[in-house]
Design goal:
It contains 16 helices and 2 strands. The chain is mostly helical. It has a two-stranded parallel ribbon. Helix 8 runs antiparallel to helix 10.
Length: about 400
């Protein structure tokens, strides 16, 4: 990576000798190799990977198999449901019955995000058709609890919607991360706060306590979410988080203005050298409209006034128009618009690049290991283009 960016910097028209990687924010998974390799540079965790980590820990077999104080396994019905759904999908595919369904059954793949939800949704949607084909007493559906199935689908939907939105390739998505974190948190709080105080008689009558199961899932997911997204708390004024964020913004704006002032000072030095040969001013120069040194009397930091004006206004901006909005604010908010472009250029997820690596892995295989680099680039370009048409 260092060699690549060094060469890229050397090939640029203007090269000041600085490390190009210092100006880049890398978005990666939480792999120890990536964290170690980029420890001296700006790096952010992929938000989609974080969401997947939350679900992976929630549906981990060790957690679902834990015993309570009574020696029972309250979350075991989830294990049974997932096992039965996987078995049903496998049977329908291998028997050829899958083709008779209006919706194709989807099998869960551990390495592919959201396939757990896709599997549950496909089973839920096709269950009436499966009953029509095999009968109501078909053995492979007897242990599928339809109520628990529906609850798990609703539980997982918000995670898929968030990861799909945050994987955007053409539009900026980093501004949505904190919002989706709060949306998911509120979603999980509903489950974590479910009332679950059944009497002994009710425990004997109810085989599967749905509220108890969903409450435990909500509590587990909420704890992991808060630990993984701990730097994205929702800006509480009481905890001073808004002040912290505003101070960070002010620091970045100060850096931008300082660089501009440094450039202007260099220009003024050159201009003063040129003007040193000009005739001296008249005796009435103190009353002239255009006075030397007038710019020194201007406010030192313009960004502060700019930030105050921006915070005092209200805007109605859609996510799809956010870049267009800032492109039109260059004159009103020159430093804020520059900072916005820098931040919005950072992707919130590395999913798009990982898809490219996945496709490349299928292109460059054992029998095609001698493909020319330009050929591989062309194949990846065509795959990316036609996947969006």
């Amino acid at each position: 990576m260092s060699n690549f960016f060094t060469k890229l910097s050397e090939d640029a028209d203007e090269n000041d000798g600085s490390d190009l990687m210092e100006y880049i924010t890398f978005v990666t998974d939480q792999g120890s190799n990536m964290i170690s390799a980029l420890r001296n540079y700006n790096r952010l965790n992929c938000s989609a990977h974080l969401l997947n980590t939350v679900l992976r820990n929630v549906f981990d077999l060790k957690f679902l198999s834990q015993e309570d104080n009574n020696g029972s396994k309250p979350l075991e019905p989830i294990i049974v449901l997932m096992t039965e759904c996987k078995s049903l999908v496998k049977f329908m595919k291998s028997s050829g019955k899958n083709n008779e369904l209006s919706t194709v059954l989807v099998q869960e793949v551990e390495t592919r995000w959201n396939t757990r939800l896709l599997m549950l949704q496909s089973v839920h949607k096709t269950l009436p058709e499966i009953i029509r084909i095999h009968g109501e007493y078909f053995g492979r559906i007897q242990n599928i609890n339809s109520e628990l199935l529906q609850n798990l689908i609703e539980f997982l939907k918000v995670f898929k919607n968030a990861s799909d939105e945050l994987e955007g390739e053409k539009n900026p998505t980093i501004q949505k991360v904190a919002l989706y974190k709060c949306l998911i948190r509120n979603h999980l709080l509903k489950y974590a706060n479910l009332e679950n105080n059944p009497t002994n008689d009710e425990i004997e009558l109810v085989e599967v306590n749905i509220n108890s199961i969903m409450q435990k899932l909500g509590e587990k997911a909420l704890g992991i979410l808060n630990s993984k997204f701990k730097m994205l708390k929702m800006f509480s004024q009481e905890l001073g988080e808004r002040s912290r964020i505003i101070k960070n913004i002010e620091k970045k704006l100060l850096d931008l203005e300082s660089k501009d002032n440094e450039m202007l000072n260099n220009i003024n030095v050159e201009r003063n050298i040129d003007e040193s040969n000009r005739p001296s001013s008249s005796v009435f120069s103190e009353w002239e409209d255009c006075m030397r040194g007038q710019d020194i009397q201007e406010p030192r930091y313009k960004y502060k006034k700019e930030l105050e004006n921006y915070r005092a206004e209200s805007f109605d901006i859609g996510d799809d128009d956010i870049l267009d909005f800032w492109s039109k604010q260059v004159l009103r908010y020159p430093y804020l618009s520059k900072l916005a472009r820098q931040i919005l250029a950072i992707p919130s997820s590395s999913a798009s690049s990982e898809r490219s690596f996945s496709v490349a892995g299928r292109v460059i295989e054992e029998r095609r290991s001698c493909l020319d680099g330009s050929t591989v680039d062309a194949i990846l370009f065509l795959n990316n283009y036609y996947s969006k048409v």
